[in-house]
Amino acid sequence: MGPNERAMRFSSYDVNRGKELAKWREHALYVSVTDGFVGWSPETQISDKQCRNLIDEIERYSDFLRTMEHLTERIGIKSLNK
User: Fold this and answer.
1) Please, what is the end-to-end C-alpha distance for the chain in angstroms?
2) Rounded to whole angstroms, how far apart are CA atoms 61 and 74?
3) Contact, 75 vs 69, CB < 8 A?
4) 78, 52: one domain
5) Which residues, in sequence order, are CB contacts of 76 under 8 Å at separation 6+?
6) Tens of pLDDT along the chain (82 residues)?
7) How far is residue 51's CA from residue 6's CA, in Å, rounded to a whole number?
8) Checking CA distances to 5, which of 16, 31, 37, 62 falls within 20 to 30 Å?
């Protein structure tokens, strides 16, 4: 079986439709319950510094998890239990 035949066996995705659906989902996540269900944007609620701090924390934890995976030869959070 050649590479073209193999590729035909897998699903193809409409990237533009996926982006459209993702945009709808993102906008649906941020709705105020108190003000008549008024939509709001996280840009007005989360500062750049808070966002950067969260990204840094996730990167540090990801590095720690990768180190533990290497040391214990286990995958994901299971690497913390060996």
Assistant:
1) 42
2) 16
3) yes
4) yes
5) 65, 69
6) 555 565 556 667 788 888 888 887 776 666 666 666 666 666 667 778 888 888 899 999 999 999 988 888 888 778 877 5
7) 41
8) 16
32 in a structural domain: yes
Whole-angstrom Cα distance, residue 38 to residue 28?
11
Which two three-digit tokens encode residue 63? 């590095």
Query: Do 76 and 66 share a domain, yes or no?
Result: yes
The answer to whether 72 and 79 are in contact (CB under 8 A) is yes
Q: What is the CA radius of gyration of the chain?
A: 21
State whether 61 and 81 are in the same domain. yes
Q: Helix, strand, or coil here: 14?
A: coil
Chain centre distance of CA 29: 14
